[in-house]
Design brief:
CATH class of the largest domain: Mainly Alpha
Distance between the termini: 43 Å
Strand order of the largest sheet: 4-3-5
CATH architecture of the largest domain: Orthogonal Bundle
Number of helices: 5
Mean pLDDT: 87
Radius of gyration: 18 Å
CATH topology of the largest domain: Arc Repressor Mutant, subunit A
Order of helices and strands: HHHHEEEEEH
Bound molecules: zinc ion
Length: 149
């Protein structure tokens, strides 16, 4: 992972969150993966390393991180519910309709909302771009092209 960002302890301190061992581990792990894990996936990944970790702690910690803006929520409609992203650089999400994996597409700026006509009286505070389709792997294995049907 080549992310030139401050370490997790530093980020927690900067946001006024007491840096417990569990919080550091959760933030470290979420920032180190690009899989956009669900809360359940975070729990499964860390339960061996931190035997005292509970699902409730993982959920509430991720919720806190999102509230503070140090982790992003990636809405998606799998059964697993919300997924999380520790990469705060501007990027769009591409979700493969077949395998459900979420891929990052880099982009130059967070200001996606400039692309839209924002009606008077609305203040845009954040934006996310969600694209869907087939990843290269699934496209290669998809049944013959439906476009000609
Ligand atoms: Zn796929
Ligand atoms: Zn992402």
């Amino acid at each position: 992972m080549n992310r030139k960002q401050p370490d997790s302890r530093e980020i927690l301190r900067a946001h006024g969150i007491p840096a417990s061992v569990q919080r550091i581990a959760i933030l470290d792990w979420v920032r180190s993966v690009s899989s956009h894990p669900s809360a359940e996936a975070v729990f499964q990944a860390l339960r061996e390393e931190i035997p005292t970790l509970s699902r409730t702690t993982v959920y509430s910690t991720l919720h806190l991180f999102c509230e503070k803006g140090i982790v992003l929520q990636v809405p998606c409609n799998d059964s697993e519910g919300m997924r999380f992203d520790g990469d705060l650089r501007p990027h769009a999400h591409f979700r493969c309709e077949q395998c459900g994996e979420i891929f990052d597409f880099a982009c130059a700026s967070h200001e996606f909302s400039r692309q839209f006509e924002v009606p008077d009286g609305f203040t845009v505070r954040s934006s996310q771009v969600a694209l869907t389709g087939l990843c290269p792997h699934c496209a290669a294995t998809a049944p013959a092209c439906k476009a000609h049907a």
